[in-house]
């Protein structure tokens, strides 16, 4: 056990996780497709431009691609990764084609940022009237309900989804998170056993297994599987966030901070990473830093009561330390 704590609870460094690989051929590939009008080559062009941090050009190329061929869902996903927030999306909406996939994109983009509102749930229901029994959209609706704190209804939808498609792995980590919050240990344990026998090489399954160990208080083992998830997919924001949570449970704030920062690097509009950083710095009693990150989180998710609660607690801690500061002439600690 001591060896396990040393291995999984120790502070991590940049060398512990792979960074995004560099492709020296990107510039030459881009030169070859600069003038293309083919929707699939425009999609490739947008991916390369985004990889080269030329975001505005990437957005332009991807919009041209979905306008020419709106059924390529991968292009919509890439476009969502380029757009900063709901405000920027609203400014670009008039440039997007009037199509079913555009409605789906609105919901998907909000889910990626965990910025779900009641209208997004209405959009899910509207899409399901057009393509009923679509597993992807049903999964989105369940995720919307989870973010809106309707956990029992979200659980029911996932139960129904797994009856229709028992081998569906997509979004299974969200279902696991719902069971975790509801403290349904037995059901979560059965889910972990079921999917670990299917595929242990999917990051979603690794997160489920990690949740199974985390709910039992075995955080060292949970970290092992969350680490496996980010090694399988270094761009899995949810896995980085869960890894940060697990490190916080072991009071390893420095490792948690690194994990949350990796999540924020990939998805700065996801409030979970900012909130996690606030918790990590609060653990280190660095309340000014903590305050900043809580403020970032609450700006992204203003209806989350838990963030407001932690924010108010942080203000109280700062005021307490200010009153005890020698600069205020009060030395009664």
Layout of secondary structure:
Elements: H1 2-9, H2 26-32, H3 39-51, H4 55-68, H5 73-82, H6 86-92, H7 100-112, H8 118-130, H9 135-147, H10 151-164, H11 172-181, H12 185-196, H13 203-215, H14 219-232, H15 237-249, H16 253-266, H17 271-283, H18 287-300, H19 305-324
Would you kindly provide a brief summary of this structure?
Helix content is 71%, strand content 0%. It has 19 helices and no strands.
Largest sheet, strands/sense/barrel: none
Structural class: mainly alpha
Identify the quaternary structure here: single chain
Helical coverage, percent range: over 70%
Measure the end-to-end span.
39 Å
Show unreliable segments: 1-15, 328-333
Mean pLDDT: 87
Q: How many DSSP-defined strands?
A: 0
Determine the number of helices (DSSP H or I, runs of at least 4 residues): 19
Q: Which word captures the global form?
A: globular
Which series of helices and strands comes N to C?
Answer: HHHHHHHHHHHHHHHHHHH
Global Rg = 22 Å
% residues in beta strands: under 5%
Tell me about this structure:
The chain is an all-alpha fold. Helix content is 71%, strand content 0%. The protein has helices at residues 2-9, 26-32, 39-51, 55-68, 73-82, 86-92, 100-112, 118-130, 135-147, 151-164, 172-181, 185-196, 203-215, 219-232, 237-249, 253-266, 271-283, 287-300, 305-324. The longest helix has 20 residues, at 305-324. Mean pLDDT is 87; it is low at 1-15 and 328-333.
